[in-house]
Each structure stands twice: as C-alpha cells, then as structure tokens.
Amino acid sequence: MKTDFLKFVRKEFLHILRDKRTLLIVLLQPAVMLLLFGFAISTEVNDVRVVVVAPNLTDGVKDAVNRVAANPNFSFCGYISQNEVDDVLRGGDVAAVVVFAADYDRRMMQTALGEPAATPVQIVVDASNTNIASSASAYLQNIIAGTASAQSMFETHLLYNPQMKSAYNFVPGIMGVIFILVCAMMTSVSIVREKEVGTMEVLLVSPVRPMRIIVAKMIPYFAISCVTLAIILLLSRYVLDVPMSGGVGGIVGLSMLYLALALAFGLLISTFASTQVAAWLVSAVVMLMPMVMLSGMLFPIENLPLVLQGVSCIIPARWYIAAVRKMMIEGLPFSAVLHEFAVLCTMLVALVGLSLKKFNDKLE
User: Fold this and answer.
1) CB–CB of 211/13 below 8 Å?
2) What are phi and psi of 74, to 5 degrees?
3) Which of 190, 178, 98, 110 is nearest to 144 (CA)?
C-alpha cells in the first residue's frame, strides 16, 4: 500500500514537471510580483517638485531651503511670488509650495523659546493625489523643522523602518496574498481536471484509499510551494534588503503552515467547482479582492468599518501578514505570534475537515 501511495506522488510530480507553462507561472509569478511591488510600485516620496515663497531671504530661510534642495526626495524648482502659488499648482508645474513668513526667523525663535507665535511656515500641497500630498507634507515639515533654529522643538524617532521603505510593507503582504492564491489555484484546478477527464473515478477504484489519493496530489504542490517560499525569502533579504530580525526558522515554519492552509483551501474549492475554468475563477478572481482589501496588505484593518473588520477575521492572509510583519520587520520572536499561529492552525483544521466532508459526500 505504501508503494502504491508513493507511485501516486511520483505520478503527480511527473505531471507537474511536464506542464512547463504552469510550472513557470507558479515559480516565476510570485518573484515578479515581489520585485514589482518592491521596486516599481512604491508609496515613498520621490522627485516631488517644490517651489518656495520667501519675502525675505534671511539666513534661516536659506538654511531651510538648502535642506529641501539637498534632499533626494524633492526637486527644488526655484522661488515664486505669493500671487503665483495658485497658478503653479493648478498648472501641475509643482506638487508643493513652501511659504515662509516675512519674519520667519523671529517666529521660529519665539516658538523655540516656548513663546506664542504665529505660524512661521505654510506648506501648500496639491492634494489631488492624496498619497503624495500626505507624504510630501510630512516630509517637508520634518526637513524644515530640522533647521538650527528649530531643532529643539521636537525630536522624532522612527522604529523598525527608519528609511520608510515601502518594500518593508509590501513584502509580507505579497507573501500572504500570492501564496494562498497560487496554492489554492494549483490544487483546485489539478483535482477538477482529474474529474473533468474522468481519471478521478479510475483513481478512486484503485487499491489506494481516497484520502491517500488527495494527500498524494497535494504533496508535490506543497513541495513546489516551498521552493517558491525559498525564492521569495531570498529575494526579500538579498535584493530588497528586507530584514528578518525575528529569525528565519519562525518565518519558514509559519509560512509552511500557511501553505498547507492554502492547499486545503484549494481542496475545498475543488469540491464546489465542476470545471477547471470555474475553479480558476473562484481561486484567482473571486478571492483576490477580499484578500487584498481585507488582509491589511494595503489598508490598515483599523480603518475599515466595524462590519468589514469582523469579515477580515476569516481572511487567513490577515493573520499571516500580521505575524510575518512582526517577525520580519519588528524583529519579534516566534513566541510573539502564537495568537496568529493558533488562529491559522484552527483555520487549517476547519478547512481540512470541511473539505474532506464535502469530498466524501460527493463520493457517496
């Protein structure tokens, strides 16, 4: 019986290796998405065009302007008058305007001494693009507040991601979404294909029990998913410079649990889908929006309405992404993500139980 089981595993491996296109997509797509989000798609402030309104070019104003001009995130485009502010912003020539008060130095000195003073600087930003607007405004405030006359006003410390690299945010999110999509799609399409061509019935009348047939089909996909995991972790560490301060062992262990959960999810989809197209649509299309929108990959869970926050609790990617961020970025040990680990274990048991029940019902 053990020999028959191993033969089924070998058959599935050979089938996957013969399908070069599917194998290429499974191994290449996650790496491409990781690099795309790590390099091409970025929420970091970059090359923001800035002009300055300065009625009096005092030493303090010059110091602040030089700091802005020297910063690689901004492109200093010169000085304009107060009357030109609206025109340059509406024309799209610049994205931000820094307006210094005529008595900027005096106001900054009063502020530094704790005396009441009018606002020394106004930052006018084109908010038609909210991502650029919020980031550019915060960056400019920090740069201008770093002038000699304002250094004593406040001190800011950025923990875990002091460079504000967007890759630190995207990598755990991409891992959470791509693993469950690819693994679920591979498993569901593979099992449904067997049903479509009629070979599933032949397999079920073989001496091997149905449960062993399903496990034999999932083992090769789990092995390929582990290869994908290794590729993503290597790219994250050595290409995108994402830290893994909490330990690689904990990240790998949690990821392997998540891969098993994703495969079980694919098995569940295969019990509902009757065609490969239906299985692909459910796993790759219907699941995509909830995974992206409700997992915390792009938007904080806390910003969602309470109803959607409740719905997000049943999204496996939410718990996986949160745990990976803690171990990768914050450098926390595995013991700090035991809650997320327990939730994923519970989901795995529930999915496997439900999938096997549905599968047995179909056999009967």
Assistant:
1) no
2) -125, 155
3) 98
Tens-digit pLDDT profile for residues 237-254: 888 888 887 788 899 999
Q: Kindly list the distances between the CA atom of residue 45 and the CA atoms of 41, 42, 75, 139, 250, in Å, as whole numbers in the listed order.
A: 12, 8, 11, 8, 33
Q: Which helix (H) or strand (E) holds 125?
A: strand 121-125
DSSP bridge partners of 52: 79, 98
Buried b (16+ CB within 10 A) or exposed e, 277-308: ebbbebbeeebeebbbbbbbbeeebeebeeee
Read off the pTM: 0.72
- Per residue in 6-34, pLDDT tens? 776 777 777 777 777 767 777 777 777 77
- Number of Cα atoms under 13 Å in the Cβ half of residue 287: 25
Q: In the numeric block, which tokens belong to residue 180?
A: 């469950």
CA angle 6, 251, 22 (to 5 degrees): 50
247 backbone φψ class: left, alpha, beta (φ>0; ψ -120 to 50): left
Beta-carbon count within 10 A of 119 CB: 9
Query: 200 is written with which tokens?
Result: 């599933």
Helices (H), the chain: 2-18, 20-35, 59-70, 85-90, 104-112, 130-145, 167-197, 199-204, 210-238, 248-272, 276-281, 288-294, 306-312, 316-328, 338-363
**From residue 292, how far is each of 173, 175, 299 by CA, in Å?**
8, 11, 9
Are 266 and 291 a contacting pair, CB within 8 Å?
Answer: no
Interhelix angle 59-70/104-112, nearest 10 degrees: 90
